[in-house]
Design a protein that fits this description.
Helix 1 packs antiparallel against helix 2 and helix 2 packs parallel to helix 4. It contains five helices and no strands. The protein is mainly α. The N and C termini lie far apart (31 Å). It is globular, with a radius of gyration of 12 Å.
Protein backbone atom coordinates (compact mmCIF):
# COMPACT_ATOMS: atom_id res chain seq x y z
CA UNK A 1 0.00 0.00 0.00
CA UNK A 2 2.76 2.49 0.85
CA UNK A 3 4.35 1.82 -2.54
CA UNK A 4 1.09 2.69 -4.29
CA UNK A 5 0.84 5.93 -2.32
CA UNK A 6 4.40 6.90 -3.22
CA UNK A 7 3.66 6.14 -6.86
CA UNK A 8 0.58 8.38 -6.71
CA UNK A 9 2.64 11.22 -5.22
CA UNK A 10 5.33 10.75 -7.85
CA UNK A 11 2.82 10.86 -10.69
CA UNK A 12 1.21 13.94 -9.20
CA UNK A 13 4.49 15.78 -8.88
CA UNK A 14 5.48 14.85 -12.43
CA UNK A 15 2.15 16.13 -13.71
CA UNK A 16 2.55 19.28 -11.63
CA UNK A 17 5.89 19.94 -13.31
CA UNK A 18 3.89 20.41 -16.50
CA UNK A 19 1.86 23.14 -14.72
CA UNK A 20 -1.35 21.14 -14.95
CA UNK A 21 -3.75 23.00 -12.70
CA UNK A 22 -5.63 19.89 -11.57
CA UNK A 23 -2.40 18.10 -10.63
CA UNK A 24 -1.23 21.08 -8.57
CA UNK A 25 -4.61 21.26 -6.83
CA UNK A 26 -4.65 17.51 -6.16
CA UNK A 27 -1.20 17.70 -4.56
CA UNK A 28 -2.55 20.45 -2.30
CA UNK A 29 -5.46 18.20 -1.34
CA UNK A 30 -3.13 15.29 -0.62
CA UNK A 31 -0.94 17.29 1.74
CA UNK A 32 -3.82 19.15 3.41
CA UNK A 33 -5.80 15.99 4.17
CA UNK A 34 -2.98 13.49 4.64
CA UNK A 35 -4.14 11.30 1.76
CA UNK A 36 -1.13 9.05 1.26
CA UNK A 37 1.26 11.45 2.99
CA UNK A 38 1.66 13.12 6.35
CA UNK A 39 -0.40 16.30 6.68
CA UNK A 40 1.87 19.22 5.80
CA UNK A 41 0.10 22.57 5.66
CA UNK A 42 3.13 24.43 4.31
CA UNK A 43 3.45 22.05 1.37
CA UNK A 44 -0.32 22.03 0.84
CA UNK A 45 -0.37 25.83 0.76
CA UNK A 46 2.47 25.80 -1.79
CA UNK A 47 0.57 23.50 -4.16
CA UNK A 48 -2.72 25.37 -3.69
CA UNK A 49 -0.90 28.64 -4.35
CA UNK A 50 0.56 27.29 -7.58
CA UNK A 51 -2.83 25.94 -8.68
CA UNK A 52 -4.45 29.29 -7.85
CA UNK A 53 -1.88 31.00 -10.08
CA UNK A 54 -3.03 28.68 -12.86
CA UNK A 55 -6.63 29.85 -12.36
CA UNK A 56 -8.11 27.35 -9.90
CA UNK A 57 -10.85 28.98 -7.82
CA UNK A 58 -11.06 25.85 -5.64
CA UNK A 59 -7.34 26.16 -4.87
CA UNK A 60 -7.82 29.82 -3.90
CA UNK A 61 -10.54 28.79 -1.47
CA UNK A 62 -8.49 25.96 0.04
CA UNK A 63 -5.43 28.19 0.35
CA UNK A 64 -7.48 30.81 2.19
CA UNK A 65 -8.87 28.17 4.55
CA UNK A 66 -5.37 26.90 5.34
CA UNK A 67 -4.03 30.34 6.19
CA UNK A 68 -6.36 30.47 9.21
CA UNK A 69 -4.51 27.47 10.66
CA UNK A 70 -0.99 28.64 9.76
CA UNK A 71 1.43 31.08 11.33
CA UNK A 72 2.77 34.02 9.30
CA UNK A 73 6.16 32.26 9.19
CA UNK A 74 4.58 29.09 7.76
CA UNK A 75 2.74 31.09 5.10
CA UNK A 76 5.95 32.89 4.17
CA UNK A 77 7.76 29.55 3.88
CA UNK A 78 5.01 28.15 1.65
CA UNK A 79 5.24 31.21 -0.58
CA UNK A 80 9.03 30.89 -0.72
CA UNK A 81 8.71 27.23 -1.74
CA UNK A 82 6.20 28.14 -4.47
CA UNK A 83 8.55 30.78 -5.87
CA UNK A 84 11.42 28.30 -5.78
CA UNK A 85 9.33 25.67 -7.58
CA UNK A 86 8.38 28.19 -10.28
CA UNK A 87 12.01 29.26 -10.70
CA UNK A 88 13.00 25.64 -11.37
CA UNK A 89 10.39 25.08 -14.08
Amino acid sequence: MARMQLDEIGRGEIAAEGNKCDALYNLGLMYSTGRGVDVDLVTAHKWFNLAAMQGSDAARTCRAELTVEMSPAEIAEAQRQAREWLANQ
